Amino acid sequence: MKFIIAVIKPQKLDEVRQALTGLGVEGMTVTEVKGFGRQKGHTEVYRGAEYKVDFMPKVKLEVAANDDQVTAIVDAIRNAAQTGRIGDGKVFVLGLEDIVRVRTGETGAAAI
Amino acid sequence: MKFIIAVIKPQKLDEVRQALTGLGVEGMTVTEVKGFGRQKGHTEVYRGAEYKVDFMPKVKLEVAANDDQVTAIVDAIRNAAQTGRIGDGKVFVLGLEDIVRVRTGETGAAAI
Amino acid sequence: MKFIIAVIKPQKLDEVRQALTGLGVEGMTVTEVKGFGRQKGHTEVYRGAEYKVDFMPKVKLEVAANDDQVTAIVDAIRNAAQTGRIGDGKVFVLGLEDIVRVRTGETGAAAI
Amino acid sequence: MRKLLIPAVVAGAAAFGLLGTAAAQEAVAPVASDASVYVFNTTLFLISGMVVMFMAAGFCMLEVGLVRSKNAATICVKNIALYSIAGIMVWLLGYNLIYGVSEGGLFGKIGVWGADDSDALGTGYAASSDWYFQMVFVATAASIVSGTVAERIKLFPFLIFVAVLTGVIYPIQASWEWGGGYLDARWSFSDFAGSTLVHSTGGWAALAGAIVLGARKGKYEGGQVSPMPGSSLPLATLGTFILWLGWFGFNGGSQLALGSISDAQSVANIFVNTNMAACAGVVTALILTQLRFGKVDLTIVLNGAIGGLVAITAEPLTPSIGQAVLIGAVGGVIVTFAIPLLDKLKIDDVVGAIPAHLFCGIWGTLIVPWTNSDANFVGQLVGVVMIGVFVFVVSFALWTLLKVTMGIRASEDVENLGLDKSELGLEAYPEFAS
Amino acid sequence: MRKLLIPAVVAGAAAFGLLGTAAAQEAVAPVASDASVYVFNTTLFLISGMVVMFMAAGFCMLEVGLVRSKNAATICVKNIALYSIAGIMVWLLGYNLIYGVSEGGLFGKIGVWGADDSDALGTGYAASSDWYFQMVFVATAASIVSGTVAERIKLFPFLIFVAVLTGVIYPIQASWEWGGGYLDARWSFSDFAGSTLVHSTGGWAALAGAIVLGARKGKYEGGQVSPMPGSSLPLATLGTFILWLGWFGFNGGSQLALGSISDAQSVANIFVNTNMAACAGVVTALILTQLRFGKVDLTIVLNGAIGGLVAITAEPLTPSIGQAVLIGAVGGVIVTFAIPLLDKLKIDDVVGAIPAHLFCGIWGTLIVPWTNSDANFVGQLVGVVMIGVFVFVVSFALWTLLKVTMGIRASEDVENLGLDKSELGLEAYPEFAS
Amino acid sequence: MRKLLIPAVVAGAAAFGLLGTAAAQEAVAPVASDASVYVFNTTLFLISGMVVMFMAAGFCMLEVGLVRSKNAATICVKNIALYSIAGIMVWLLGYNLIYGVSEGGLFGKIGVWGADDSDALGTGYAASSDWYFQMVFVATAASIVSGTVAERIKLFPFLIFVAVLTGVIYPIQASWEWGGGYLDARWSFSDFAGSTLVHSTGGWAALAGAIVLGARKGKYEGGQVSPMPGSSLPLATLGTFILWLGWFGFNGGSQLALGSISDAQSVANIFVNTNMAACAGVVTALILTQLRFGKVDLTIVLNGAIGGLVAITAEPLTPSIGQAVLIGAVGGVIVTFAIPLLDKLKIDDVVGAIPAHLFCGIWGTLIVPWTNSDANFVGQLVGVVMIGVFVFVVSFALWTLLKVTMGIRASEDVENLGLDKSELGLEAYPEFAS
Ligand SMILES: Nc1ncnc2c1ncn2[C@@H]1O[C@H](COP(=O)(O)OP(=O)(O)O)[C@@H](O)[C@H]1O
Ligand SMILES: Nc1ncnc2c1ncn2[C@@H]1O[C@H](COP(=O)(O)OP(=O)(O)O)[C@@H](O)[C@H]1O
Ligand SMILES: Nc1ncnc2c1ncn2[C@@H]1O[C@H](COP(=O)(O)OP(=O)(O)O)[C@@H](O)[C@H]1O
Questions:
Q1: Residue C95 β-bridge partners
Q2: Measured distance CA(E206)–CA(E210) in Å, rounded
Q3: Which residues on chain C are in Cβ contact (under 8 Å) with A2?
Q4: Is the CB of residue F130 less than 8 Å from the CB of residue E3?
Q5: B98-101 and B28-36 strand pairing
Q6: Given an 8 Å threshold on Cβ–Cβ distance, is F300 in contact with A49?
Q7: C96–A91: do the CB atoms touch at under 8 Å?
Q8: Taking residues D368-394, what's their average pLDDT?
Q9: Mutate to test the interface with F, among E2, E3, E290 (most CBs of F within 10 A)
Q10: Chain F: residue nearest A52 by CA?
Q11: What per-residue confidence (pLDDT) applies to F433?
Q12: Interval F389-403 mean pLDDT
């Protein structure tokens, strides 16, 4: 099993969620994060003083999935989250050793 | 070492924390997240318009632990977080290659 | 590749970011979290009632990096985040199997 | 101590050994000196004007609470700017357009206003106090527009519209009635404090804007209505309370005189009717939302208070309390049903200003003859239609002109990111919001 | 320019060539015409009533700031609804229950109120202005209850309680004193602006509610007190400032007359004493919390302001400033010590209304004889006890009745999730809160 | 209905069959009785005082909105405490220092104040109403200081400074002018409502504090200015609206009399000029920030409103509307350029109080002779300099004394964590803020 972490643009969350639901993904966890990257923040003026905004608002998506689903999920995220402009984000794939569903105690694939 | 990620219902955080402390877990990191899952959100009416609430407020817990502690920790989380109702959440176990304690520079198990 | 997760004191974020940029790290993701650990919260009084503050505000940093960079990054975080006082935080190193850059579709090291 | 006046007075007087003089009063004729009347009238204008001015803060808080946080700072800019622009425009153009009109006329004088107190006793109040009171009314109409077009309109086109609305559109139609122009002379149209002249006028301008501007992105996509919940209902509630407070000045001050026993009684009766209509609007909206949606909707309850207030504004003096309660209750009904209706029509009115100010304003104006025999239904209808057509058409034309020239709509990216970050380069709540 | 009146007047007059007439004034007798007195009195009621009405917003902000955000929208609904219901009930029942009572009686008339200005000069003020002023007082008592039972009570049972409190319970006890009933006639009980009649009454009803309702889940579990910090202390502070402002109308307006030199002086003295008592309450609470808890507690400092205001309300006229400061300071002491005390008794008073309104109300009422020789300790005690027993017992019975019939307590799940999401289906701060 | 007075009166009168008496009025002489004049004057003080008192809430909201949330609760404590301390100090010391000064003198009487209404007709207003009005002015000056030194000053040293400022520093300089002392007698200095006496005084004390205290940690590090965005611009906007409202009482009440036709006209003219100066300040700041920074800066627009208000405060009566607009517009220019300038000088003024209150106060005072021939430039300059030197030097000394004795600066850790958590042990927004 894999633990997929995606950092995307906030306004893309809905499309991505729908894309994943389309694939039969039944669950995901979302966190509001701030991103720092190539998409250099812009400079702002506040009360006459210039300053750089380094961090851009992003949304982090965590999805646990079976190995066979990973490619599909990663592609789905990519297609849905892509605007082609810098700052679109990244998808990280980590190994996942086990899952437990709190409600039932099921483990492994059954708990996804 | 393992990196345990648990997504639970907010009102269960205190009980889980106490359960873990009971096991001698000395540290954990908590994040407010939104969860999407089998626990389908309900429909609400706002100014006369219906809409579905897809994401439920959840709390994410991250705990780094030694391999021998993992089962105990996972079980403790399960027992403390369980309400038996849908939406109770999940526990994910990932591999953890190393830890460093910023204050002292200790690494590995000693840094947990 | 590795997925580095660091939990540090909020006021250290800027210094850490600069340290990492100095190493040529081009991206990172930041989340506000609450930390529970050896740094026991203090007791407060609110409307005459005492209570313990268990969770301290922390900042979580996630950086994906190539294996050869990991030590440098971990050290940089350590040096920048260290105050020597309890509660400085931890750095966790997890294995990272793959990365995809949403914008371009590049994968692996190229996507970092 | 009895909480009734007479004993109190006696006690008070006694305490100061003035019992004799206090008794002596009985002798004096029951009219105030001209000087006192003059001061009373002026004071009525000034104090009423103050609380009406404060309504600008009320509208600002109501709007800021009902928009998403990413647009909250822009709302603040708009509201403080529109109040300021209104003041300047009413000085430069507005006042003389309203009161420079000839008996039965349609168009007043063009010219900057200046205080003229030469014939003090003739007018019976300080010229500036009257100007101040009229000016804050004009600002109110502009505030109404702001709420409807929020979250997607560009700042400067909006401010230009406000300048024309407060300097020209509002004054022209107001002159027809309050200036003693066409509607007053020809149709004995009656609109005591401005259900039509102020609130519907703002509402018509807002409606035109909402149509020309279009709905917020995502609001009506996929054939369904996607709510965009307000970011701070407590501030919206505070704003409503402030508006309610201001309304006592809005309606009470419109008696325009306080110097006689009868005027004092009128102002007092207006206060009570104004309050009761609002109470009825709140309770009605509360019960109806519970029945219709299965849950009380705070935001509609707030609109209900305003709907009740707007409804009673056309005639807050002549109704009995029972009548006032009924008039306000219908206001509550109107907002509860009109808000979802507008959504069906895909008219995106962010704060519900059109139901509360336009629809309830029409209702309040048409019902005047029920309680005030000086008014008649035809005259009321003519006023509502004539002012409605004028304001809507001119506003629509102006919005369209602004659209084709400089553009009034923020780009999709700007709307996504929020007007605050993109237009102002700051955030209303930099530490909190998502 | 000297900032003293006389030169100013002369200057002003001179500037308008009215020096002669200004001088001429000296001739006129120092009493106002009946008409002026009438207008002054009416104006006092209306303006005081306006700021007291605004206290509804103050209570709402104070409560909204002291509850957790998951219940903030419900607080808003409750506060705007209770003010509206109070207005309707005082019209339908309340007023005639208060003022329809016979000399020394215990129960007034049943009947809807309507303005009667037939004997204008006899009463000396517009009937509606008096009604308006009395009505906003009743609403205040209801606001007090709302704060105590917050975060766990169901909406509709609360609103029903409010209807009975404002329509029946408050009016009956108020009639005993302000209606010239039993306490006034038989015991020369004295409560100038309502430390007991308004604030303790609200406090007793709140106490009964807190007991019948029980504490918020988790508040007193594990034998220890778990604080539930307020979600927006700035709004709580704003609310306190609004209440402070309103209190000038609350106490000042209770002079009930403004038409004579002596009345004007009384109102002015009341303003100063009211202000100083609040100042003393703030400073005392600030110092005491620092000494007792090692840290200044803003929320208790806010309660201290209110405690000082409530304490001076029973007699804001006769104390010297020094005495007013002392009376207010004791109010600050009371809240600082009573708040933790209530927690020990497991009485969960979310906003601290019981210490500030009930305890300080009792204190203020009992201390009246110190500065006002017309009052005596026994009479004050009788009033406090009689009203306390009546209001507490009836409220307790009513709360219990509501509990056994429809239930007053939100379910544990609802309480966990917050009343906003579960009862209203929305969030006060959808973008921010946890 | 025509919205003009005369017809309304007639209508109203007619409606009550009082037409005869209404007409009869014409006969009466155009002066109010002394009693009426007395009541009018007293009422002016009381009502004006109420809205000026409410400015304390305005300052609190403005500051709370412009600081970071981690210091917001401390701002609330400071603001409610400073208002309370001001009241107590003006009672104990302040008032008699101001008005106990001998003609042309420099130092008034030491002693607690008590109301003296023995010569009612002589003074022409209730003593307490005057005291109340003067007291709220003093509080205003203290509020100004609070905003500048926010986010890094320790609570108690600040409160001690406030006590001395309101009890001694402000009163002494005020006595020179409003007490009829040196500046009034010797230089016919003119400062109608306190551009210099209130606002510059607060500004000078703030400037001294900012210098002695130093900038917030990180504000000017690395040779660049790091903005620290305000945590709630909507609250800052609300605060500004409240201040604007209060200013009508601030300037209008400073006419000190309302009992004659000429006084009523003056107060009305003051209202209009005050409003227009603020409008101009807003519009100017809006346009200038757009031009200079490419984006409208809401926070500077808010300062622009205040800058315009402060500028007109020295002479709100004599300017024509056009002149008032100009005077206010310059206020808007000043804040727009002075805010970045102070940053260049590394003077950390959190809310922009120094540009708005000090600089605009100086501007407003110096421009008085332009519209008021009783004033002359030299006299104005002497007043500005003399008061400036006195207040700045004494404040600087006092701040320094506090620094070396008890320390005024919060530790770096405290500043990092925020004063709320460390000094008060609570959070302003425990559920939201970062
Ligand atoms: N090495 C990294 N580790 C963790 N997160 C990263 C990394 N690089 C980028 N990110 C996240 O991805 C977001 C987008 O990356 P960015 O470089 O700005 O644009 P792009 O992905 O289009 O090249 C960043 O804001 C950050 O949140
Ligand atoms: N595949 C998944 N990956 C990541 N998080 C998940 C996944 N499935 C569920 N979750 C998280 O667990 C929470 C509870 O899951 P849900 O399916 O709603 O109920 P249950 O766990 O009882 O079946 C979700 O709200 C979501 O935050
Ligand atoms: N076992 C753990 N798993 C996850 N996070 C931890 C763990 N231990 C500590 N942390 C995080 O590190 C932070 C600092 O740890 P703490 O024990 O308080 O101080 P120190 O790291 O200096 O010993 C904690 O607040 C928590 O967020």
A1: C2
A2: 6
A3: 97
A4: no
A5: unpaired
A6: no
A7: no
A8: 98
A9: E3
A10: F226
A11: 56
A12: 98
pLDDT band at D10 (very low <50, low <70, confident <90, very high): very low
Does F225 contact chain E (CB < 8 Å)? Answer: no
The Å distance, Cα A111 to ligand 2 centre, comes to 9
Size of interface A-F (CB pairs under 8 A): 35
Q: Which pair of structure tokens corresponds to residue F414?
A: 């405290």
Determine the number of helices (DSSP H) and then strands (DSSP E) in chain F: 21, 0
Q: Judge whether residue D6 has pLDDT over 50.
A: no
pLDDT in tens, F156-177: 999 999 999 999 999 999 999 9
For chain C, give the DSSP string.
-EEEEEEE-GGGHHHHHHHHHHTT---EEEEEEEEESSSPPPEEEETTEEEE---EEEEEEEEEE-HHHHHHHHHHHHHHH--SSTT-EEEEEEE--EEEETTT--BGGGG-
Q: Which ligand is nearest to the CA of A3?
A: 2
Residue ranges of chain E with pLDDT lower than 50? 1, 4-29
Contact assignment for A94 to B94 by CB distance below 8 Å: yes
Relative to beta strand C98-101, strand A90-95 is antiparallel
The SS3 assignment for E150 reads: coil
pLDDT score for E3: 63
A66-111: per-residue pLDDT in tens? 999 999 999 999 999 999 999 999 999 999 999 999 999 999 999 9
- Residue F7 predicted with pLDDT over 50: no
Return the DSSP state at F103.
Answer: T
Q: Please write the tens of the pLDDT for every residue from F208-250.
A: 999 999 999 999 988 899 999 999 999 999 999 999 999 999 9
Q: Which ligand is nearest to the CA of C64?
A: 1
User: Which three-class secondary structure string do you get for chain D?
Assistant: CCCCHHHHHHHHHHHCCCHHHHHHHHHCCCCCCHHHHHHHHHHHHHHHHHHHHHHHHHHHHHHHHHCCHHHHHHHHHHHHHHHHHHHHHHHHHHHHHHHCCCCCCCCCCCCCCCCCCCCHHHHCCCHHHHHHHHHHHHHHHHHHHHHHCCCCECHHHHHHHHHHHHHHHHHHHHHHHCCCCHHHHHHCCCCCCCHHHHHHHHHHHHHHHHHHHCCCCCCCHHHCCCCCCCCCHHHHHHHHHHHHHHHHHHHHHHHCCCCCHHHHHHHHHHHHHHHHHHHHHHHHHHHHHHHHHCCCCHHHHHHHHHHHHHHHHCCCCCCCHHHHHHHHHHHHHHHHHHHHHHHHCCCCCCCCHHHHHHHHHHHHHHCHHHHCCCCCHHHHHHHHHHHHHHHHHHHHHHHHHHHHHCCCECCHHHHHHCHHHHHHCCCCCCCCCC
Q: Residues F389, F390, F396, F397: is their CA dihedral positive or negative?
A: positive
CA A36 to ligand 1 center in whole angstroms: 6
pLDDT at B43: 87
**Of all residues in chain B, what percent carry a pLDDT higher than 90?**
81
C95 and chain A in contact, CB less than 8 A: yes
What number does the ligand 2 atom closest to the CA of A102 have? Answer: 21
Token pair, residue A66, equals 């079976």
pLDDT for D433 equals: 56
Q: Which ligand is nearest to the CA of B105?
A: 3
Beta strands (DSSP E) in E105-225 are none
Strand partners, C61: C6, C30
Report pLDDT digits (tens) over B84-112. 999 999 999 999 999 999 999 999 999 98
Alpha-carbon gap: D216 to the closest alpha carbon of chain A (Å) = 14
> How many CB atoms are located within 10 Å of the residue E401 CB?
16
Residues in chain C: 112
Neighbours of chain D (3+ CB pairs under 8 A): A, B, E, F
Instruction: Report, as an integer, the average pLDDT of F350-379.
Output: 98
Instruction: Find all residues with CB under 8 Å of D291, minimum gap 6, and list them.
Output: none
